[in-house]
Amino acid sequence: MITARLDAVSEIALSMGSYKGSQSIVEIEGGDSDATIMQPELSCLLSSVLTFLGRSPDIQRGITRIFHRTATPSEFIAVIQAILSAGKQLKRLHINEEYEDYGCNKIGVAIVQSALLRRLILTASSSKVLGNAVKLLSTLNKEAADKGDFTDLIIISKDQFPEVARARKALQLAKEKLDNLIGLYRKQFRNHKLEFTCVSGTTHLVELSIDAKVPSNWVKVSSTKKTIRYHPPEVLTALDQLRLANEELTIICRAAWGSFLMEFGEYYMDFQAAVQALATLDCLHSLAILSKNKNYVRPIFMEDNRPVQIQIHAGRHPVLETILQDNFVPNDTILHADQEYCQIVTGPNMGGKSCYIRQVALIAMMAQVGSFVPAESATLPVLDAIYSRMGASDSIQQGRSTFLEELSEASQILHNCTANSLVIIDELGRGTSTHDGVAIAYATLHYLLEQKKCMVLFVTHYPKIADIKAEFPGSVEAYHVSYLTSNNDEGTIDSKSDHEITYLYKLVPGVSARSFGFKVALLAQLPSLCINKAMIMATRLEMIESSRARKKTGEKQLQETPSSDQELETQAIVLKSTASFHGERTEDSEEFVSAVRDLLSKLKSATTDDDYAKSLKLLKEAQGIANELIN
Predict the structure, then answer these.
(1) What is the spatial distance between Cα 316 and Cα 328, in angstroms, rounded to a whole number?
(2) What confidence tens digit (pLDDT) does each residue in 295-346 have?
(3) In this structure, what are the phi and psi dihedrals at residue 107, rounded to the nearest 5 degrees?
(4) Which end of the chain is more exposed for a tag (fewer CB within 10 A), N or C?
(5) Cβ contacts of residue 187 below 8 Å, gap of 6+?
(6) Rounded alpha-carbon distances, angstroms, from residue 573 to 34, 359, 568, 577
């Protein structure tokens, strides 16, 4: 089915540029040389049909309302008329049922190559559907439908709706009786111009001069200076009969309309198939326009007996590409069941990690539905599913936290994915503590690699996750989205250099050591004091982690943060002894030791003080002392 859709999209796209004109001429073989059949170009005809349907009511919704007997008469006519008009236009392709398998018209000329397109066109322009549409429309009065008049809605044919015919005849007799009465009054009052009048909503009044003599049982309704208006008792009786006939006709006509809609159920399946065919043609035509306008390529699907692999060259995100126009940076994706089938993606915040894995999933999804894809080339397997664990949300109604929702989605993936699945996971484990998050993320990825062996794109801010490569050599590779900074020293805490980062959005091998969260904090316009405090806190945590690491490895460096005044004094003595050993004067060595002691003291205070402003001031003072010592 995927290949059939791709063939259909390809044929429509090719037909868009295949002819300069909107029609091609096919000679009739064995006939008069002057006789020709004007064959409309496929894309031009489809565009005409779909443009017409775009201006029509929603036929999919309308056909459902008709089936459930909730459609109005005007809606019924509009929907059936739209299906009829679309089918008649598609009939111009001259594809006949007996030539369906060959895609030929009645003279044996190939018109549409795609078997799927032929089947859809034949279904939408079926003679049975068009014949039933004409029959249904011939039963209804369009003018009455537009007015919402049920009494004149049904057009009666032979042996159809006899009860409506009787009710209309009864109404006609009531009207004729009133006409006969006005004729009698003309003779009685010798006024051949006498007519019933209507005043203030009161109908069938007999208006006579003020000096006219009338029977005593006539009811006076209103008068002027010159005339008096009456309701004769015979007229009142006839009016009662007219009203009763009108009410009966309305009830019977509404019942007939309901019966008419119920009878439509016999044709519903054929009409529904035609509507579905038109909807599918609309989708295929849209995909063809997209592929031609956006320079998409036809994906190649692998045979089932070959190892699962995804090879996308210069893939692009279909939505972002449209928004960014020519500024989108494409990326390659290579996954192979027998080689590298997992990519761990790291990188700075807003660097394009989530965009990249969404891009791969969207390309795979578009290919599966039969669309061309945004890439220079794409080779894909037929996937049984695409699983996604992205974003963060809770469920207050069910008492489920964000982290529980996150792990529940991960659990569904672990239970349901197979070796023919594509799994994309974005920052699993961020809803809990760092150690727990790293452990859960690591274990989840380990399970996917060891038990499921499916294609995995795993985005994380935990560099430790990349250590899993050692357990699955050749099957896992770490990548990061590249960037440039204004300062090569990525360990600096200077806010300016930390914020000056240029995203390159290109996926390259390796693990990114930093996430540049302060860049996002600046973009979010957090208060500067808040950002400064965060940077000081981050520096403290980095120094603590660094100190722990050095202690574990037995390193003893001068820059290690002193833990007590006694350590400060011990280091000062060592420095003094070192200075004397090198032949320096005692006075100079004492001054040097004092400066170092001051430097270490300020560093210690800066990393332990809770006042961020004071800590920042101490760090700047320590930096000044260090510069003097170096000089």
Answers:
(1) 7
(2) 999 999 998 888 999 999 999 999 999 988 778 899 999 999 999 999 999 9
(3) -100, 10
(4) C
(5) none
(6) 115, 62, 9, 6
Between CA 532 and CA 541, with CA 537 as vertex, the angle to 5 degrees is: 150
The CA–CA distances, whole Å, from 517 to 352, 364, 499, 537 equal 14, 31, 9, 13
Which helix or strand (DSSP H or E) is residue 214 part of?
Answer: none
Dihedral angle at the C-alpha atoms of 591, 593, 599, 601, nearest 10 degrees? -120
**CA–CA separation, 149 and 251 (whole Å):** 12
Burial class (CB in 10 A: 0-12, 13-18, 19+), 287: buried
Note the pTM of the prediction, 2 decimals.
0.74
The predicted pLDDT at position 430 comes to 85
Amino acid at 549: A
pLDDT of residue 552: 67
**Look-up: residue for tokens 């019977």?**
252
Distance between CA 79 and CA 75 in Å, rounded? Answer: 6
Task: Tell me which amino acid residue 29 is.
Answer: E
Angle formed at CA 209 by CA 205 and CA 215, multiple of 5 degrees: 65
Which residues neighbour 526 within 8 Å (Cβ) at sequence distance 6 or greater?
A: none
Query: In this predicted structure, what is the pLDDT of residue 561?
Result: 47
Which residue bears the tokens 């004149």? Answer: 152
Say what the pLDDT of residue 505 is: 92
Distance CA 231, CA 619 (A): 108
* Cα–Cα separations (whole angstroms), residue 221 to 235, 241, 384, 566: 13, 20, 82, 120
**CB atoms inside a 10 Å sphere around CB 418:** 12
> Which letter does DSSP use for residue 482 in this model?
E
Q: What are phi and psi of 95, to 5 degrees?
A: -90, 120
Per the CB < 8 A criterion, the answer to whether 87 and 129 are in contact is yes
| Backbone phi, psi, residue 63, to 5° | -65, -30
What Rg, from alpha-carbon coordinates, does the chain have?
A: 43
The three-state secondary structure class of 560 is coil
Crossing angle of the two packed helices 2-16 and 42-55, in degrees rounded to 10: 100
Which residue, 16, 257, 231, is CA-closest to 144? 257
Regions of the chain where pLDDT drops below 50: 18-39, 102-103, 106-109, 488-498, 555-562, 570, 574-575, 577-587
Q: What is the pLDDT of residues 253-271, one digit of tens each?
A: 999 999 999 999 999 999 9
Residues 6+ apart with CB under 8 A from 253: 150, 151, 153, 154, 164, 167
CA dihedral 66, 70, 74, 76 (to 10 degrees): 0
